[in-house]
Fold Anti-sigma-W factor RsiW.
Amino acid sequence: MKCNVAVVFMHDYLDGDLAREEAKQLQEHLGQCPSCYARYESLERTDAFVRTLPIEKAPEHLADRIMKSLPSPRRPAAWTSWVRRHPAVSAAAIFMVVMLSSFVAMWNQDQELSVTGPDLEHVVIEGNKVIVPEGQKFSGDLTVVNGDVQVLGDLDGNLTVIDGNVSPLASTAHIAGEIKTIDRAVDWMWYKVSSWFGTLAYGS
């Protein structure tokens, strides 16, 4: 047996964990190696001394104080738990926030006059003003963005004015549909969403 193996066996032997065959080999080695025998005697005295020391009893509530001093595990925020439990509602809410942000951004950026309708040759545009002339008939819906509207003739459809004004109707004017005036970003968003869903329903 080599000395380095004997040193490892010494500790196990003193703890009573060494097998009988290995203990026999260790005893034979100690009888032949004065250096290892001296080391073993030193370890044996130290082990005996430690065993004679009185066992100090730990103070009461020491375990409780130690546990209280440990940092408590971080609890996930309430909103993250709610998101995990309601993924569909969370996705819908995020979608609505993105839509609202994009609509508001478009509302703030789009400041040019825009006129849409199926019969634009019967309207007159003067600067920021859209006019349906007297004696003219506009067929279909007319939508004006960032402009003022004056109806002097016939409008066979709905009139929608976004971020603009409708002049008082002349005595010769006639509008077959509804007049919608939208001057807020939220109303405009609702108008866009309604139009989008209306397009989907019409397409299907």
About this structure: DSSP finds seven helices and ten strands in the chain. The longest helix spans residues 87-109.
